[in-house]
Amino acid sequence: MIGKLLDTNAVIALQRSGKAFLEFLSQNPNILIPAIVIGELYFGAFNSGKLEFNIAVIDAFVTKNTILHADEITGKSYAKIRYSLKQKGHPIPENDLWIAATAMQYNLVFSDTR
Asked: Domain segments of the chain: what residues?
């Protein structure tokens, strides 16, 4: 799969950039978003003071990009990553593990949007 995988922080930073966000989307037609990122974005919207506006922005973003869903392969990757990090004494937040597992499953690297 070819495209740019974005995590939650990258999506939020891009959205805040206004015109730069639209330019980035136009220059990168195949944006890949792990399903867990969508959940984090909606959670942020529910915590915001502009719920309806933020939901509309996320809805529009979701319909224009590819969502990568988790399955048993993602789960196996998640377990391997989590176990490895536990053995090293370097745990990371659960959602970040799922995003990393999705990236691993699809042989993707996170895109630096800067």
From this structure: 4-105
Phi and psi at residue 29, in whole multiples of 5°?
Answer: -70, -15
Chain Cα centroid distance, residue 33:
5
CB 67 within 8 A of CB 57: no
Range 4-105 has CATH code 3.40.50.1010: yes
Tokens 């377990």 -> residue? 79
DSSP H helical ranges for 7-71? 8-16, 19-27, 35-46, 51-63
Q: pLDDT tens digits for 39-59?
A: 999 999 999 999 999 999 899
* Separation CA 24–CA 72 (nearest Å): 32
The model carries a pTM of 0.84
Pairs from 58-61 (Cβ < 8 Å, separation ≥ 24): 61/11, 61/15, 61/33
Return the structure tokens found at 87. Answer: 């053995």
